[in-house]
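Blinded run. Sample ID left blank on purpose so nobody reads anything into the name before looking at the predicted structure. Input follows.
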Amino acid sequence: MSATQRDRIPVRFSNDSLNSNDIIDVMHPKNTRVDWLFGWCRSDILTETGKRLQICKILILILVPIFGLWSFTVYGLFGSLRVKSQMEQTQTAVKISVGIGKFLDKIQRERDMSVLYLSILGPQTKTFLRNEYLLTDQALDQLTSWPLKTTVTSAFHSKAKFHRFLNKHRQSLSSKNFDIYVEIAFYNSLIEPFVEWLYDAITESSKASMWQILVSYQKIVTGMEQIGIERALGVVFFVNGGFPSKTIYENYNRNVNIFKSNYRSAVLYSKGIDTIFQKGMLKSGTNLTAVIEKFRYEIQHSMDIKPSITKGQWWFDNMTLYLDTLLIIQQDLAIIINDEVEIVITEENRQ
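Blinded prediction complete.
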């Protein structure tokens, strides 16, 4: 028998020597580098240990895809809950912001009426201010939540403390012991923390359209404060025949420029604002924007003018109409935001 023929003779195993491990050795020759990886597969399924390992392998094949699907579902659920929570927080912030916007409008009017009282335009008694005080207090009472609890100044720690602090000032107000600019500065110090809260409260939303409306709303609310200061300073300018210092003049110009910047930003993020605004400007039958710009030009380009109570009254009335239009825009935006938030929450609930 040749060597080639001997090589072709099949190797025979006796029944006594053949077992599952021999088969595994043939199919998977031993390799010390991978033994640690396949060792758990090299068990005899006829033994108790092998049976338990086999059951474990079957369970792993079943449970791995189930666990993966469960993980994906849980991740999606938490994502939906997170978006819903963000929308609900936004909705709450908007509701508080609407109340604050109304309150700021009233306290700005109270500030400007106080300026009138201290100027030549105002009457000799504070009787006409009582109605403004009442309107401000009503707007304050309607705030469902107090956002300034953590403010450093103790007067802002609660609604009751703030009201007492404001009332104390009202009672001490007198044309004999108060200066117009001190009065403006006092009310500005009350308004500023609310404006800062608005900036912090309205944060970026995951919805692009929602974020744009929120920014527009924020710009309009804060812009109304600049218009309020401009109205008060303009009254002083026309009644007194000019500003007493360069600092007051620069303060006036700064508020005009900040408002225009805020308004342009608001229109950039929400195109419908300018349509509402222009409609309000023409509502009285005259171009209110042109009238106010004429007054502004005189204030910005005249160091001294002849004092005029009449001009001061015209300025105040026109700027009040201007502010009323901005308030309408603010309220319309608040409705749009609330509707948008409700839609997002409804969609998340369906998912």
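Unblinding after everyone has recorded impressions. Residues 305 and 324 are 28 Å apart (CA to CA).
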